[in-house]
Amino acid sequence: MSVQNSLTSVQNSATRAQATPASPLLLAHYTAVSCIGRGRGEILASLREQRSGLAPCTFETVTLETCAGEVPAVDEERLPQALRDFDCRNNRLAQLGLRQDGLAEAVARSAARWGPRRVGVFLGTSTSGILQTELAYRRLGATDGALPDDFHYATTHNSFSVADFVRHALQLEGPAVVVSSACSSSAKVFGSASRMIEAGLIDAALVGGVDSLCLTTLYGFHSLQLTSRLPCRPFDAERDGISISEAAAFALLERVPESVDSNSVLLLGVGESSDAYHMSSPHPQGLGARAAMAAALQAASLEPGAIDYINLHGTGTVSNDAAESQAVQALFGTSTPGSSTKGATGHALGAAGALEAVICALSLQNDFMPGGANTRHPDPALQIEYLLRNREGPVRNVLSNSFGFGGTNCTLVLARAG
Amino acid sequence: MPPLLARIEGVGLLGPGLLDWARSQDILGGRSPYRLQATVLPVPEGLPPAERRRVGQIVKIALAVGTQAIRDADANPTDLASVFTSSGGDGQNCHEICRVLAQEDRQLSPTRFHNSVHNAAAGYWSIANGATAPSNAVCAFDASFAAGLLEAITQVALEKRPVLLVAYDAAYPSPLDEKRPIADAFGVALVLGPEREGQALSSQEPSRARIRVSLADAAAECLTDPQLESLRASIPAARSLPLLIQLARREPGRVGVEYLDGRSLAIEVL
Predict the structure, then answer these.
(1) Which of A140, A192, A196 is nearest residue B136 as measured by Cβ atoms?
(2) Is the model's pLDDT at A12 over the cut of 70?
(3) How many Cα atoms within 13 Å fall on the side-chain side of residue A135?
(4) CB B137 to CB A179 under 8 A?
(5) Could you give the number of structural domains in chain A?
(6) What distance in Å separates residue A179's CA from the closest CA in chain B?
(7) pLDDT above 80 for B198
(8) Which of 130-159 (A) contact B at CB < 8 A?
(9) Surface-to-core class of residue A334, CB atoms within 10 Å of its CB (0-12 exposed, 13-18 middle, 19+ buried)
(10) Number of Cβ pairs < 8 A linking chain A and chain B
């Protein structure tokens, strides 16, 4: 197929999907915290060792036979006294993320340069601080059934609380919103933030995702029989479900300056689509996933062959990985290397998109493609080039998939500046 | 900075004493009195019977106003991108999950779990309408209407394509309602279309007005009618009322809807 034909077919399948941004944006700074490490250095080292952070779940009072990716010492994090009403595991994890790799300082410099009203906050979460409510329901008043006085709905339970906490912690006053579209949440924030920058409402955006372990997701995915007893094995012939984890991941987006370091990472494209198929199962042929990938490529003005590495959504359920591999194969054929890093990090749900964007940025800056941890025998029915081992080599353009309940799909394309 | 302009192509509305957009325009325009009565939620259209039984109030109100708006706009939902915004999602469902998780036996219903996602209404909308276009699901607590409008209008202005905005809230049951009182269910939907060159001003046609949106320092103004003001203040999605009233008056004007930090989103009806 010629380049032109291939592009036309990509554009045709993308007609209903959405393509953002019009021009590339710079990831001026980025960091993450996950069960495989705090900050870029530890995460990169874990990926290089193909180390998994998944372990039998000992979270809270959970008695499920499943593995989880718990971030150590989250609850040792102390919020500033002035923000104590925000105190909950999700906001502690957010703060832990902001403290890594000088992220908060980089945001402060951006706010000083552009003004606090010109820096927006766009974060994804699926469950926010719902754990706080789960715990409070164990302490309802014996006579009146009321929630305890120390329960603060707005600043913990509510989906917006994580963005509200972050903008208060960093003293930002620009537009802010939480995207809560299940497991695509913190990929979609890249699209919302890009549009706000492009519309001229802001000059910089802190984007990211924060999702923390809670009983709703652990028992919920278990009720759907979607959790594995073992550490998840994406794309393995014997895969049998997900491992739930938690993470905080952030990136500071700005317009690309006239002169930029060649090792910088750019956001080239965001593609979004809906399956319109089922609340908790993907379209069996991955049509929505394909449309999102095609839209992201179109926004990036790249043909599929230009992508060096695909960070798959790859949750490790039988149906998700089957649908995604069909979508990838339809667009890319069978030779583009890809892997799911969820075998290492677990599935951080609403934080997965941003966490995997950070992993993609590390891949680009270190010419390194992470092999999928835990996976031993790639499913021969899933005909894509699944990386079992790390691969070193030039990485210029990468694509990252995030799909969620409700049939929501989002794909990011990131690239090295030079 | 390019102006954030859009054309309102269709409106949907359902709330306490507001049966639909067509029957609410005289009330909101001050031409007939407002009488408070509990919101009546219709059975959702387009979903298979099993799904219809499973969905909560929040999905019912979102689907009802979305359907009204696309009919008003004569729009095809299949190709229409959408933005769903809610201050809290399905409170009843959330209460049931927390109640079960506080017990010894934590057997959750799988349907309750997949309905617990904030984008449940967006998902059911896409399934009911075969809508494969992108859909976003956002939250900004009491500023959720303004934040949703900003998300939708930036899509319209930059991508030159229509977007359906649906803002909706429903009450929490006890004991959550004591911590987060939301008076009743309220939903509003707008089909926003890209501004076209040379289009005549049309504030005379309330569903066909043009709007320009910008960030403003001023606080959102209160409504003069005390009952409507009480409605505006008691349900986050009803923070949209200043805009709906301006549209129902069928005249140009500028209103402010609540945004963050005591500031507002200014909406000029042109």
Answers:
(1) A192
(2) no
(3) 16
(4) yes
(5) 1
(6) 4
(7) no
(8) 130, 133-134, 137-138, 140, 145-147, 151-154, 158-159
(9) exposed
(10) 213
Interface of B with A in 119-138 (CB under 8 A): 119-120, 122-124, 126-127, 129-138
Q: Which domain range does residue A27 map to?
A: 3-416
CA distance A383 to A386: 8
pLDDT value, residue A21: 81
Interface pTM, i.e. ipTM: 0.96
CA distance B132 to chain A (A): 4
Residue among B137, B141, B157 whose CB faces A154 most closely: B141
A387-416 average pLDDT score? 97
CATH number of the CATH domain containing A88:
3.40.47.10
Radius of gyration of chain B (CA): 18
How is chain B classified by DSSP, letter by letter?
---EEEEEEEEEEEBTTB--HHHHHHHHTTSS-----PPPPPPPSSS-HHHHHH--HHHHHHHHHHHHHHHHHT--GGG-EEEEE-SS--HHHHHHHHHHHTSSS----HHHHHHTSTTHHHHHHHHHHT--S-EEEEE-GGGHHHHHHHHHHHHHHHH-S-EEEEEEE-PPPTTHHHHS---S-EEEEEEEE---TTPPP-TTSGGG-EEEEEEESSPPPPPSSHHHHHHHHHSGGGGGHHHHHHHHHTS-EEEEEE-STT-EEEEEE-
pTM score, whole prediction: 0.96
How far is residue A165's CA from residue A77's CA, in Å, rounded to a whole number?
14
Q: In this complex, which of A147, A220, A276 lies closest to B131 when CB atoms are compared?
A: A276
Q: Among all residues of chain B, which has the CA nearest to that of A226? A: B110
Confidence at residue B47, expressed as pLDDT on a 0 to 100 scale: 86
- pLDDT-derived band at A148 (thresholds 50, 70, 90) equals very high
The mean pLDDT of A151-179, rounded to a whole number, is 98
Which helix (H) or strand (E) segment is A386 a member of? strand A385-386
**Contact call for A180 and B139, based on CB within 8 A:** yes
Per-residue confidence (pLDDT) for residue A4, from 0 to 100: 38
Q: pLDDT tens for residues B217-226?
A: 999 989 999 9
> pLDDT per residue over B19-57, tens digit each?
999 999 999 999 999 999 999 999 888 888 888 888 999
The domains located in chain B, with CATH, are 4-269 (3.40.47.10)
Q: What integer pLDDT is reported at residue A10 of this predicted model?
A: 42
* Minimum Cα–Cα distance from A187: chain B residue: B136
pLDDT at A39: 98
pLDDT digits (tens, 9 = 90+) for A335-373: 999 999 999 999 999 999 999 999 999 999 999 999 999
* Neighboring chain B residues of A291 at a CB cutoff of 8 Å: 132
